[in-house]
């Protein structure tokens, strides 16, 4: 389905190599070897589906797929942007697959998932940025697995009028959009994006549907400092974001942005306490935290936290 031969990171070929630091003990994971992992992988291949677990080289793939928890990546496997942290291929995008939403729905039903995260590559080449495919995928999951709760992790839909509104109207249970890093590092880490546009996206979701849970995440270890992380928390709370994830940045290849340092588990715990103190309903903060890591369990806790907050306000 790809329209051109794929060179995974041609846009990074001329960048100088950054040495890959040895990982500390607290961030090492076991290789995926379970029967359930192989079954999940086979299902993804049989249905010709892409997962961010594989494309982004997620360190948690063995653990998640053992539980048959896979994060679907729609709109193809080739991104129109070249973020310095990301392992997803950049280049000429795949053609839109009109049957992809139904195959995602079939996979969700076969895996028996209570909660599914659907994300995508950036598709700046499409008039709607891919919003329509998100909408069709939400509807297909609802038809195939009506009891499954749905979390979307969308691109920023920069300069795509009506895209956010279309996805919100489809009523996912959680609308996630990651800020990824602090504003000072955007030019080198996420050059195609705009920090305040992403904040406005999250604020817009809440304006359109105040009942919808919103979520965002950042990576640490890219060169940010504590004050900047706390400012991001404040910015997200000003946009009434409910759920924050904080995880360690891991460098995929020497051509990607260097790891500045490995943040310790104690520091992650401190960030977690500070974020709860600022009013987030749910916070996941650890070296291996990723947007979709234990997303179903976290969503259940998120709902309980809202109920408790509403009860306390009575």
- Reported by name, the CATH topology is TIM Barrel
Largest sheet report = 7 strands, parallel
**DSSP strand count:** 9
CATH class: Alpha Beta
User: How far from one another are the termini?
Assistant: 55 Å
| Coarse shape | globular
* Class from secondary-structure proportions: alpha/beta
The CATH architecture can be given as Alpha-Beta Barrel
CATH homologous superfamily label? Aldolase class I
Model regions low in confidence, pLDDT < 50 over at least 5 residues = 1-7
Quote the average pLDDT. 87
Number of domains: 1
The ordered string of helix (H) and strand (E) elements is HHHEEEHEHEHEHHEHEHEH
| Number of continuous helical runs | 11
Strand order of the largest sheet: 1-4-5-6-7-8-9
Oligomer: single chain
Q: Strand content of the residues, in percent?
A: 5-15%
Estimated radius of gyration: 19 Å
- What is the share of helical residues? 25-40%
Write structural notes for this entry.
With 314 residues, the protein is α/β, with parallel strands linked by helices. It has a single domain (30-313), classed as Aldolase class I (TIM Barrel). The protein has helices spanning 35-46, 52-55, 61-66, 100-111, 131-144, 163-169, 186-189, 195-208, 226-238, 265-277, 295-313; strands spanning 72-74, 78-79, 89-90, 115-120, 149-153, 174-176, 213-220, 243-248, 282-285. It has a 7-stranded parallel beta sheet, sandwiched between helices. Strands 2-3 form a two-stranded parallel sheet. Helix 4 runs parallel beside helix 5 (131-144).
